[in-house]
Amino acid sequence: MLILGIETSxxxxxxxxxxxxxxxxxxxxxxxxELHARYGGIVPEVASRQHMLQVVPVVERAMAQASASxxxxxxxxxxxxxxxxGALMVGVNMAKAVAFxxxxxxxxxxxxxGHIYAAWLEGERPDLSPGFPLVCLVASGGHTDLALMxxxxxxxxxxMTRDDAAGESFDKAARxxxxxxxxxxxxxxxxxGVSPPREELPRAWLRGTLDFSFSGLxxxxxxxxxxxxxxxxxxxxxxxxxxxxQSLAAAFQDSVAEVxxxxxxxxxxxxxxxxxxxxxxxxxxxxxxxxxxxxxxxLPVFIPSPQLCxxxxxxxxxxxxxxxxxxxxxxxxxDILPSLRLG
Length: 343
Ligand code: KG4
Ligand code: ZN
Description:
Helix content is 43%, strand content 18%. The chain is α/β, with parallel strands linked by helices. The protein has 2 domains: 2-117 and 308-324, ATPase, nucleotide binding domain (Nucleotidyltransferase, domain 5); 130-303, Nucleotidyltransferase, domain 5, CATH 3.30.420.40. It has a 5-stranded mixed β-sheet with strand order 3-2-1-4-5, with helices on both faces. The protein has a 5-stranded mixed β-sheet with strand order 8-7-6-9-10, with helices on both faces. Strand 9 (275-279), helix 9 and strand 10 (301-302) form a beta-alpha-beta unit. The protein binds 5'-O-[(R)-(carboxyoxy)(hydroxy)phosphoryl]adenosine and zinc ion (ZN). 5'-O-[(R)-(carboxyoxy)(hydroxy)phosphoryl]adenosine binds next to helix 5 and helix 6.
């Protein structure tokens, strides 16, 4: 079964052709990062307009790279939530147009579920080995969710962030340190080579729950940076010396990575899960990947390669394959759901 996936929920226009939820024939991602970087974050109107300009060429490129004829497609899949309303609409309308023109079934996919199904695109199939139930951490720019997956498309939410998402906290921390947008990769680069013993920032453990909180950490970082800037007589807008920025970036990254890894392992222990799946842009973070791998013991852990952690459409086509195995396609009334959740 060959599925064309389309993803436009945030700031990447993406299309991909995937066979049987597993074999990636093409994976095209047109990033808008440079466009939004000058504003220091995503501007929804700019994102929608850019998707409108990019979506047709991106789909054409995905079909060409896959050397797929339109007749070979079995279905069209698209992210219909969560995400920015205007951005989602562009992808959903494109998917409807293709499905209508080619008389193909149409599948609306939850973007967060897509991040989980990225784990099906490489290595062992998690549903076969070790099998369900699996604990899934989705850490992205808009979400930090821990869920128990006990079958295809079946999720029970175990914990979520009570304030900022992990990716959002990286983006805000990078702004405080004058490192620009997007913050995650910038913080990771700045933290590279900072050797132990490392400076520490607080961790919000929220003991007794599997929820997260990252806004206190961001405030602690802001206060430390402001106090030091003040002591050095820096003017507003001037950055701390490079060594201090690097040390604070490493401290911030350690704090987020350690909490994400520890809570994910705690969730697996509490639920008796057979394995762990990580997904979402923040999972591209090397420190988080190291932290989890170092502590996971014998439990199988699936961590997609960085280009499949960040937004892409292959993960949407992969998730849709398992929808297609168990249900009919959606109707033409498929709507966007900007606040869609897991489970
Ligand atoms: O999943 P994603 O590509 O888009 C959303 O669904 O939001 O995640 C984007 C988020 C951004 O906040 C970005 O700063 C963060 O993922 N991110 C990272 C890294 N690469 C991307 N955070 C930490 N370390 C990274 N290497
Ligand atoms: Zn995402």
